[in-house]
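Example 3.
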Amino acid sequence: MARRPRTRPTLEEVAALAGVGRGTASRVINGGAKVSDRARQAVEDAIAELGYVPNAAARALVTRRTDAVALVIAESEERVFGEPFFAGVVRGIGAALASADRQLVLILADARRRGSLEHYLTRQHVDGVLLLSLHGDDTLPDRIRGHGLPVVVGGRPNAGVKTGFIDVDNVQGAGLAVAHLADRGRTRIATIAGPSDMVAGSSRFEGYVEALTAADRPFDERLVVRGDFSLESGARGMRTLLQRDPAVDAVFCANDLMAVGALQTLRDAGRRVPEDVAVVGFEDAPVSRSTVPPLTTVHQSPGAMGREMVALLLDTMATGDMLLPGRMLPTRLVVRQSS
Amino acid sequence: MARRPRTRPTLEEVAALAGVGRGTASRVINGGAKVSDRARQAVEDAIAELGYVPNAAARALVTRRTDAVALVIAESEERVFGEPFFAGVVRGIGAALASADRQLVLILADARRRGSLEHYLTRQHVDGVLLLSLHGDDTLPDRIRGHGLPVVVGGRPNAGVKTGFIDVDNVQGAGLAVAHLADRGRTRIATIAGPSDMVAGSSRFEGYVEALTAADRPFDERLVVRGDFSLESGARGMRTLLQRDPAVDAVFCANDLMAVGALQTLRDAGRRVPEDVAVVGFEDAPVSRSTVPPLTTVHQSPGAMGREMVALLLDTMATGDMLLPGRMLPTRLVVRQSS
DNA sequence: AGTAGCCGTGGGAACGCTCCCACTCCCGGG
DNA sequence: CCCGGGAGTGGGAGCGTTCCCACGGCTACT
């Protein structure tokens, strides 16, 4: 294997080989405007021959852009890494950034480093920030924006926020699920809701209520229990529901894991699914395919969420408008055998 | 809120404010050698007052170092993102890199981009490469090294590789599990092994065989079945084992998920765990805490793996020796109620 | 026939840093 | 009393780009 020359070729060398000036070579590589075909061809040949790649540091120095985007995951959310949904989001982000020729700088911000994180972000290295967050009480996005750095948040921090976020349309998704249950002729449609202090919890509940009304079903408080998105809380919630109203014939669970718990309780109670009780989840997690029976659930596309986050960030960077409206991503119902 | 000055302060401004030369200011920020206390203090005050942060691009341009490290996850492994173990590894890497003041550039390399990945890595942006891989048939690490870039692989590609990797000591871990079962007086110790073409599969099986011999237990081929690390394959494997030898009184599963499957089969077959059959897993996945009964398993520390990967990479970068020996990380047995 | 304007071009300047050389002190030894 | 040398310092050069200005040649007007 031939030893490559120790130093990387520079633009100057490319220009020399192509027999043009540095400026022309630069123009070929970038804008491309106002270059004769002959010169362009010569430069492109030289680039290929030398295996030239622009030096990112030199470019960043003069343009004051790094072509890098930070993905910040706060420590409290680090566990999301282990969740398939967020893994999918990260993948979507990675793919979208790669297509846009941007680098993804991953920052796992622990609490200690919180101060220097801001310092780092605002004064260095990246052109924009992607934030993955579940909690609502965070002023970090606005603080970063205050320093002139574009920010897009994945998962709307709270319902009051109208700009700079991408989230799944939880209200619409929950509506889909409930409308489906009503369509199936179910009359006593219960819900195992999520925590009301999380957007995913409150919005899905909101969608449940709306769709119930739209379908002319009465809203009955006794058919509402709250879980914490865990399997156990789903099982417990289902027991409560059966106790309160043995005639319940459908239940919409705010996520799949709670639906799995509900399924267990129903089996233990000798109820057939879907004959006696129909069950619908939310998330379309991998587990929903392997439950018994396979779970009908609201599908949300993590990849799309990642891609949309990047798209919105690039838009923000391009327009300079820090307050671009956020987007809600549509969901769709995946009907399996539990309903 | 006062508007920050449009341009970031430069080293020159810091030096001017401190009343010293650019060289002295630079010396304070970096090496620190040969600077009088008076000058150092003045520069540090000026830095604090101006909120100065060195421009990374300018620094990279002259030092030819970026202080960034790439973490490459090949598409075929992208799913690992959703697995708690790998999420932990990434976390460990992130933490270790942050302490070393290095940036983590995440590259999700899909197959299409495979060529340009190498191009990108070798000619740009990063000082070293971390590779997360499960498959053995990959020449990528060596190709990258051929370009003079340090590489550390997480998860040994295959048993022949002696350098530049960090892995869990699978043989030792499996030995721990089997020795424990032998200690408990079990005589017919079976195993549900993993795929033989994966290091985790073959090494854990190797450890099983070794420990069996060390404990004076006969190796019986009928007590060996192979799974694919999935829950279903564990359940199936256990059925096969019970069929072949109803007197089996212990089973070592090459991962926790298969152990969960085995547990299900045993319950369905009316065997008590651990009274009739003891079960041990590998991984200490979150699920192992919530099985019935809670699973005894081999604990491997993902955080340690990430940190060790970074440590080895930094060592490689510092010494310039591309062929530093790899390391096997010790495991320990977590005894719960299934054995 | 002269000139205004455009296209395509070359190269100086600047980006902000580190490296390194040269310079000034000042101390101690011959 | 002179001189060698170390400690501390200032600032020039250079890293590889992009930006921008000035320039030459050509076309198409007046």
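Confidence is low (pLDDT under 50) at residues 1-5 of chain A. Chain A is about 45% helix and 15% strand.
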